[in-house]
Design goal:
single chain, 222 residues, alpha/beta, Elongation Factor Tu (Ef-tu), domain 3, Rossmann fold, six-stranded antiparallel sheet, 5 helices, globular, 2 iron, 2 sulfur cluster binding, flavin adenine dinucleotide binding, oxidoreductase activity, FAD, FAD-bd_FR_type
Length: 222
Amino acid sequence: MNIYLIIRMRSHKVIGIRNLTSSTYVIRMEKNDFSFKTGQYITLGFTGSIDRREYSIYSSQNADYLEVLIKEVEDGLVSKKLKRCKSGDMLDVDGPFGHFSLQNEELQTKKFLFIATGTGISPIHSFVKSHPELNYSVLHGVRLEEEAYERDSYNKNQYILCTSREKTGDFHGRVTDYLKQNPISSDTVCYLCGNCHMIYEAYDILEKQGINLGPIHTEVYF
């Protein structure tokens, strides 16, 4: 097992860090020869440290760099340390892992609905950046408008911001409230990424609206 971990672990140099809010930021690293499928995640930590955390890949599959979107957790060991990293620092990357990926045979023919809460938007960002030809809509649930992380990345007619604590988004309320008021057509392929409560509730709503088990893909995001 130890040999396996040594083989998979790679060191990547930090290119830069950009702060999106006071607690949320994006780390950009050199990609080197790293390859992944959109929707997959990595484990990340400082080289030489045993502390690691899982983060979905934020950047496009085709970009020449590797990015992750991170929210600083009050009691988190890794997120606080990573926020202090700077260009030239080395980070250990392990992965990629996971199967929360788009199916190639569906890319040109299907209509997609991506539902995310908070930083659960990370793999969705990778989906859209990697496949700009997608017929998609994004439903993003946050508390405050400032948490609409880099919303300009999406076509404004295909991105719906649901704000629960402000009336500054496109819809005031949770993503599940939006779904109840705006039924989804049964031929839609749905990807849900966020907290488990949202996923359970949204899943039930979509099933009642005629979305079958197969076209619903989920990823619990903490």
